[in-house]
Amino acid sequence: MFALVDCNNFFVSCERVFRPQLEGKAVVVLSNNDGCVVSRSNESKAMGIKMCTPFYKVKHLVDEGRLHACSSNYALYGDLSNRVMSLLADAVPKIEIYSIDEAFLHLDGIDPDKVPLLCREIVEKVRKWVGVPVSVGVAPTKTLAKIASHFAKKYKGYKGVCMMDTDAKRLKALELTPIDDVWGIGRRLAPKLVEKGVRTALDLVSRPKEWVSANLNLPGVRTWEELRGNACHEEEHEDRRQSICTSRSFADMIEDEKELVLRVSDFAAMCAQKLREEHSAAHDVTTFLYTNRFRDDLAQYFPSATIHLDVAANSAQEIVGAALKALRTVYRPGYRYKKAGVIVSRIISDDAIQSSLFDFDDGLRQKHDRLSKVMDAVNSAAEVSGSASGRSLLRLATQRPGHYADGIRSDFRSRLYSTSMDDIIEVK
Amino acid sequence: MTGMTEFDVQEQGNAPFAEEQMPRMAQDGIHAGFPSPATDYMTQAIDLNRELVKHPAATFYGRVVGDSMMDAGVEEGDILVIDKALDPQDGDMAVCFVDGEFTLKYLRFHDGGLVLVPANDRYPSIEISEGTDFKMWGVVTYVIKRVR
After folding, report:
1. May I ask the CATH architecture of the domain B48-144?
2. Which of B44, B62, B137 comes nearest A424 by C-beta?
3. Option in B61, B68, B79 nearest A428 (CB)
4. Do B57 and A293 touch (CB under 8 A)?
5. Which of A258, A416, A417, B49 has the most neighbouring CB atoms within 10 Å?
6. Which domains can be identified in chain A, with CATH numbers?
7. Strand-by-strand arrangement of the A27-30 sheet
8. Angle (CA) A152 A153 A155, round 5°
9. Is the Cβ of B42 closer than 8 Å to some Cβ of chain A?
10. pTM here?
11. pLDDT tens across B76-128, in order?
């Protein structure tokens, strides 16, 4: 079983944590340069404002006082996202961070009778501790969990948690889900399916395998399997044997986060180098930690977190950055770690890298590529001359997650309430 | 399917807890020279984050403006450590959102009602009723004061 935890209207919800006066009001968050709408409160959705609407088209509503617009404040959203993810990592041993505002929880090994309570506790805890509302969908496959989370969000009666745990519920949900709302059915595919009479997810699963194989490509067939309740997204990795793992046991157990950051950075940089050697790039970066299983006098903890990259990457910057984000999500002080590792998976050929819809900076990507090439050249030269003692000569100074460049337009940006001491809330 | 992590580790021939397979890199870095006699006494310096922040995911900071909590020793410019994870209790100092702004007050629960009590005679207590625009934001656990 999987649970998809999705933050409701995430950017707007982040703004409301520090500006409770925006609760119950129509609010939108704008993209970089205040270009277009990227997050909407339920009230602004009800006004008919669509995703990606250019700001100038709704500016009159702001001037009339009917709509509140916020520039995007990625440092704030990133920090609150990290807080949410760390609470999710506390709740289950294994999570996959799919994007800034959603994560899959692996529920295998958890007593199914306890899952509903666990999910309800997650909803309440995230709401109370961070201040952000979340919805949880539970189902046998990731594609179905995604659908269940839509229902959890849409219908107040679920109180944030929708369990798709029987076949009857699954079929009912599929009947109510338009085909273009299904995860994995792209914008180009949906109209073609509708033409062929496939309007809902139920229409699709009702088609026989032969029809599906003849009319859809491989990912489409997988989506069909997933909608039928057969998990495919996991097996995908197993079939292709496409992953690279770098891990080590430590001579001495490590408790210090800074030390783990250095080790994990090394592991991730080695994975990235391997990817570049093979002219490939990875979509998923996992960091895992193990305490010493043979020391039953010590507290035990075996967490892992996976970061999903919208655009497959092989630069040291991106792979190390993702691995450290995963590390920060699962690291807890008070444990003595015996082993750590980084796995890169969902590997594709690097000429097949496709940019994502939002915020993809091609110039930055090329800069990373050039830097990585220089690093590789220096490191291999150093290896030949034996000067690097088995360690890479050139490494990244482990960086803080990027702050967006100055000079972009953000007329309505809120403060850095949780990441800058100068910007904390004022209390009278 | 046991999960991706386990599978991948096995694929590398590096079972999760096997100690004997340590390719390429020496187990714990390269050691050279004499070990420091301090190594045996190595311990972490006091980390205020760890001491003062019990719930990192739920902890935020605020800065005091005004003097409504003056008699409690809380003055303008002081930094508040605010823990949203805690359940507010009678007598707690808490950050609340009332009538469009954050306010710092003592909480007094009585007869099922709540009163926000300042620590300064010049300010009135605020009775929270059904109609009040009110939101409990977080409980204050520490006040950090600059003294020079």
Report:
1. Ribbon (2.10)
2. B62
3. B68
4. no
5. A417
6. 9-73 (3.40.1170.60), 77-236 (3.30.70.270), 242-385 (3.30.1490.100)
7. A37-40, A27-30, A68-70
8. 70
9. no
10. 0.76
11. 999 999 999 999 999 999 999 998 999 999 999 988 899 999 999 999 999 99
